[in-house]
């Protein structure tokens, strides 16, 4: 697609990019950097190589000085020997003066074997500078001595004298330093020349084509990169710059393709956006309608909630009132205080009212405690306790001699009668009452220190002896009432001796059926009895408070499951 | 004698061989002589000492039962060698030679043994030339031209030394030097041997010359000098015969 069809925004113009990127400071240019790097490298290498060459030259010069002087001495040795043998001062002087043809010679002395100096000379050539600091360069190679021998006819080789020659360390050092300075200057000039040459080559081969390429790139139209054409000189190159140019053209063409694709995508995106906007508007209208419907439903829900709350309030008020009634049906807790050492009663329905009920009564010197757990809890249980309370009052009034088993049997008959559970046949189904209860009854008094106990269902008598020993007496199997069940076949009276200090407990299954701890499990009667054994030394009121706290800890986050009733007593 | 065993006999013979039998061993001395060809006086340039000096000293040694070893040395080394004790005697010697170097040393000289004349030799055609025309003087190495010393010191004459007499003669012939200063008898002898005639160079009595006598000298053995003096006095005829045979009886002859 041609850029002319592009309708998207332009990325920029060459006029904007040019002034910002066009000028490269001279010190940051490639040419300067390359020149600096080249000069540095050439100088560094030159310096290193120069030092090495200097050391090698120094050693070579020393060797040359030594060897050259030795050769010279070897050359004049014959004449020196002749002069020494002949004791010929003139010949010796000529030899010494001849040696001074070498400008490095500082002193020459020719001595005969009699210790006489045949000839000697010394000079001190002035150097252009103070060379004392550099004398060490040649200080160890400036002294030469050659012992002279003469082949005397008929006498063999005979020592005839000594030729000593000293070179000038100053002259040698100055000559060497001049050579070193000249080499250094030449090395520096060579480094500069190489650097300039490399810079020129680098400029014409790289920097200038790069500048041309940079200028050409600056002229690229960001909106139409595909329309860019390279400079002609660059286009003919077959080197790396030509390769770079080819890649650049490919890149610009790819950029042009990208821009075209972007334009197409923008158009498609615009169309899609418009479609989505229409969808959103329609959906918004739907949502607004649904919102209105929800608001209307919420209004209705609020209204229903209000009504429900009002109904709940009324129901709760009814429950509170029912609790007052049920509480009024319970005997005073101090009804037996005069005949027991201690007595403590826990009555805690699961809701405001419940199915647990107890009764305390004295007739003459007999004392009676009845604990019952009626079917269900809450309002239904409470209604059964009303029936039970009425039946209990009737049974106790009509029984001339109280016997725990007979009283429980009479309660079974009376409850069944009042709830019409004693009627057989299809009509009994109309009453729809299949309710009943578990009950336990404790009776004691008179002269003997014995206690009679009878029970039906799940309310046992627990005794903690003064020794701490615990014993449990269970009642008869079955329940009282219940249309679907028959009456217990046989209810037994259990007689228990009252030991001084013994404690008796009657408790419904709401006390022991506590779910809690980890892993989750029922508390059970055994754990409760063990706790009571461990707390036997406490007062009964403290025991009941402690037991409630223990149960609460055991339940933890769990909620209670049933009504709880516990009667604890310590007879006199 | 029958009981004398062979080993004992050998020991006795060895003892007789090493023990002096009344004859004393000769004293041995080193005589430093010049290693130049200075015939007819002497010659040591071949390593062997010969000539008149050798004949005289050998005659003295034989008469006095001495053993003399001759050590040819450059003339210039003779005096230092004597003063340093490297040689026992120096021959020839003359107290007039290098008197400054002899100061402080007790050198004992013999009586004159043979006379000598050191003179200036020129080409025959140059005889009679004035002394101031001599600008370059040649001589053998180690030979001190005593007669020319004032002119040499004044720079009127330059001295050229040469180790070889023949070269000196050729230098005069080729006008490299104007004259040669040498012993007159020696020059005549050299001319005879080099050129087949004795007058290739001729002694010019008008030019500087010196004369003197050769002596034997020593530092450490003056008794030998005394013996030499006594021997020469006692054997004056023998000495004179040796002088005549060497042709040195008239050193002024030219």
From TrEMBL, chain A:
Which superkingdom heads the taxonomic lineage of this protein's source? Bacteria
Q: Which InterPro entries match?
A: Bact_Sigma-Reg, PPM-type-like_dom_sf, PPM-type_phosphatase-like_dom
SUPFAM superfamilies, alphabetized: PP2C-like
Gene Ontology molecular functions = phosphatase activity
Instruction: Identify the residues that the record assigns to the PPM-type phosphatase domain, covering every copy.
Output: 338-571
Write the record's keywords in alphabetical order, separated by commas. Coiled coil, Hydrolase, Membrane, Transmembrane, Transmembrane helix
The UniProt entry, under Pfam families, shows:
SpoIIE
Q: Locate the transmembrane regions by residue number.
A: 35-56, 185-206
For the region Disordered, what residue ranges are annotated? Answer: 1-20
* Coiled-coil ranges from the UniProt annotation: 273-307
Q: What is this protein called?
A: SpoIIE family protein phosphatase
TrEMBL record, chain B:
Top-rank taxon: Bacteria
Q: Solute-binding protein family 3/N-terminal domain: which residues?
A: 28-250
Per its UniProt record, what InterPro entries does this chain match?
Answer: Solute-binding_3/MltF_N (IPR001638)
Name of this chain's protein: Amino acid ABC transporter substrate-binding protein
- Organism equals Thiorhodococcus minor
């Amino acid at each position: 697609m041609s850029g002319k069809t592009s309708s998207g925004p332009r990325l920029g113009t060459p006029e904007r990019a040019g002034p910002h990127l066009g000028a490269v400071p001279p010190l940051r240019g490639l040419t300067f950097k390359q020149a600096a790097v080249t000069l540095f490298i050439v100088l560094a290498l030159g310096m290193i190589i120069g030092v090495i060459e200097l050391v090698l030259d120094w050693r070579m010069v020393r060797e040359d000085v030594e060897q050259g002087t030795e050769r010279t001495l070897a050359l004049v040795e014959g004449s020196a020997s002749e002069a020494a043998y002949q004791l010929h001062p003139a010949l010796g002087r000529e030899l010494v003066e001849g040696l001074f043809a070498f400008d490095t010679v500082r002193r020459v002395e020719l001595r005969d074997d009699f210790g006489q100096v045949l000839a000697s000379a010394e000079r001190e050539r002035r150097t252009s500078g103070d060379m004392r600091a550099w004398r060490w360069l040649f200080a160890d190679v400036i002294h030469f001595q050659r012992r002279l021998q003469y082949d005397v006819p008929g006498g063999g080789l005979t020592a005839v004298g000594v030729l000593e020659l000293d070179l000038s360390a100053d002259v040698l050092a100055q000559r060497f330093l001049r050579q070193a300075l000249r080499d250094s200057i030449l090395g520096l000039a060579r480094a500069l020349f190489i650097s300039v040459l490399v810079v020129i080559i680098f400029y014409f081969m790289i920097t200038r084509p790069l500048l041309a390429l940079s200028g050409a790139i600056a002229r690229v139209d960001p909106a139409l990169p595909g329309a860019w054409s390279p400079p002609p000189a660059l286009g003919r190159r077959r080197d790396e710059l030509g390769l770079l140019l080819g890649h650049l053209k490919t890149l610009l063409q790819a950029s042009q393709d990208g821009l075209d694709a972007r334009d197409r995508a923008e158009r498609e995106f615009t169309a899609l956006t418009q479609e989505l906007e229409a969808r959103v508007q329609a959906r918004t209208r739907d949502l607004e309608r649904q919102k209105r419907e929800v608001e209307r439903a919420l209004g209705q829900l609020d209204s229903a909630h209000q009504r429900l709350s009002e109904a709940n309030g009324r129901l709760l008020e009814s429950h509170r009132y029912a609790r007052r009634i049920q509480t009024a049906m319970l005997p005073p807790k101090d009804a037996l205080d005069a005949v027991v050492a201690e007595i403590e009663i826990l009555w805690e329905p699961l809701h405001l009212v419940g199915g647990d009920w107890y009764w305390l009564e004295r007739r003459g010197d007999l004392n009676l405690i009845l604990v019952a757990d009626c079917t269900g809890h809450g309002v239904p249980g409470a209604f059964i306790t009303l029936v039970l309370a009425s039946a209990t009052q009737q049974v106790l009034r009509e029984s001339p001699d109280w016997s725990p088993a007979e009283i429980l049997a009479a309660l079974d008959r009376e409850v069944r009668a009042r709830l019409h559970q004693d009627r057989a046949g299809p009509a009994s189904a109309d009453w729809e009452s299949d309710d009943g209860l578990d009950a336990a009854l404790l009776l004691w008094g008179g002269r003997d220190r014995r206690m009679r106990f009878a029970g039906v269902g799940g309310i046992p008598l627990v005794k903690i002896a003064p020794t701490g020993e615990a014993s449990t007496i269970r009642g008869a199997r079955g329940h009282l009432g219940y249309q679907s069940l028959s009456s217990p076949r046989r209810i037994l009276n259990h007689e228990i001796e009252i030991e001084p200090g013994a404690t008796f407990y009657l408790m419904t299954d709401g006390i022991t059926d506590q779910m809690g701890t980890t892993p989750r499990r029922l508390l059970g009667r055994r754990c409760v009895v063990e706790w009571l054994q461990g707390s036997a030394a406490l007062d009964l009121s403290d025991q009941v408070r402690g037991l409630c706290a223990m149960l609460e800890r055991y339940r933890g986050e769990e909620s209670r499951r049933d009504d709880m009733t516990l009667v604890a007593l310590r007879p006199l | 004698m029958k009981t004398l065993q062979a080993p004992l006999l050998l020991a006795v013979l060895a003892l007789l061989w090493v023990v002096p039998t009344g004859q004393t061993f000769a004293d041995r001395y080193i005589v430093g002589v010049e290693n130049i060809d200075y015939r007819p006086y002497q010659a040591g340039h071949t390593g062997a000492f010969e000539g008149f000096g050798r004949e005289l000293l050998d005659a003295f040694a034989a008469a006095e039962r001495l053993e003399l070893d001759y050590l040819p040395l450059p003339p210039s080394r003779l005096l230092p060698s004597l003063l340093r004790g490297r040689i026992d005697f120096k021959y020839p010697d003359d107290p007039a030679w290098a008197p400054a170097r002899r100061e402080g040393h007790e050198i004992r000289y013999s009586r004159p043994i043979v006379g000598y004349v050191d003179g200036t030799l020129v080409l025959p055609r140059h005889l009679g030339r004035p002394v101031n025309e001599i600008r370059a003087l040649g001589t053998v190495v180690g030979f001190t031209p005593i007669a020319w010393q004032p002119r040499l010191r004044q720079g009127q004459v330059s001295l050229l030394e040469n180790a070889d007499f023949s070269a000196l003669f050729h230098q005069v012939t080729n006008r490299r030097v104007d004259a040669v200063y040498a012993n007159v008898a020696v020059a005549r002898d050299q001319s005879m041997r080099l050129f087949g005639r004795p007058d290739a160079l001729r002694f010019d009595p008008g030019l500087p010359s010196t004369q003197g006598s050769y002596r034997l000298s020593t530092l450490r053995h003056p008794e030998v000098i005394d013996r030499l003096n006594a021997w020469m006095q006692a054997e004056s005829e023998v000495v004179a015969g040796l002088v005549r045979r060497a042709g040195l009886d008239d050193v002024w002859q030219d």
